[in-house]
Known about the structure:
Layout: H1 12-39, H2 45-78, H3 85-106, H4 110-135, H5 140-169, H6 174-191, H7 193-198, H8 207-244, H9 246-251
The protein binds retinal.
Retinal (RET) is lined by residues 91, 94-95, 98, 127-128, 131, 147, 150-151, 154, 191, 194-195, 198, 222, 225-226.
Amino acid sequence: MDQEFLVSSLSDTQYSAVSNFLSLGxxxxxxxxxxxxxxxxxxxxxxxQAIVISGTVTLIALYHYWRIYDSFAAAHAGGEAFNEAxxxxxxxxTVPLLLLETIAVLALPxxxxxxxxxxxxxxxxxxxxxxxxxxxxxxMGPKMMWGALSTIPFLYILYVLFVELTKSLDKQPxxxxxxxxxxxxxxxxxWGVYPIxxxxxxxxxxxxxxxxxxQIGYTVADVLxxxxxxxxxxxxxxxxxAADDAxxxxxxxxx
Length: 255
Ligand code: RET
């Protein structure tokens, strides 16, 4: 909910812009979910969990985009409050899962994997929970304070991913290591969009423009961080399957 203005006061162009992006988000989540669930059988069994988790992330987001779309349409038609909490509930579930799918596809030794999960999952939940009070307030002071608190676990996650992923890259085949590097770049580039969208009201864009910019920013970032990210995980799983098993590689025409 944004206290500064009512969704019903958006111009027709602003309303259509947000509505079209939300609809695009819904379609992208639907298509990616089906594609990933159907494709998980095409990688070696040890990589399937990573693909199933990726499809589950887009399935959870598919549900939330439907709810967000409905809440937005109702807020526009009837002046009801727009429910911004759907996004935060979505992230609370999907951000830890995105980290789990990343760890799963790397197929690291168990001790290494457990230590990564134990650090990254609580940090990602803290990042989202601390950001929410700042999202729903129109006051700049508390917005900056919660934003700064949420940035602490955010930076910690980036630090852990950088250090740990870099260590694991040495043990991966060359093509896999190049794709994992691209995955990491994609993660940093897309996750960076969230705090920028959050800061729009602080950056001097206010009221309706900040709302529209934030909704479009979050939606584009979600499609990249969930769909493109999930498809990249699938590509890594295929490359690793081919590297692990020559008969997989030849049956998939990969060598
Ligand atoms: C908030 C609050 C302001 C400070 C920071 C934030 C970071 C949010 C991030 C969200 C990532 C969400 C993803 C969802 C996709 O499934 C909460 C906006 C740092 C990084 C990846």
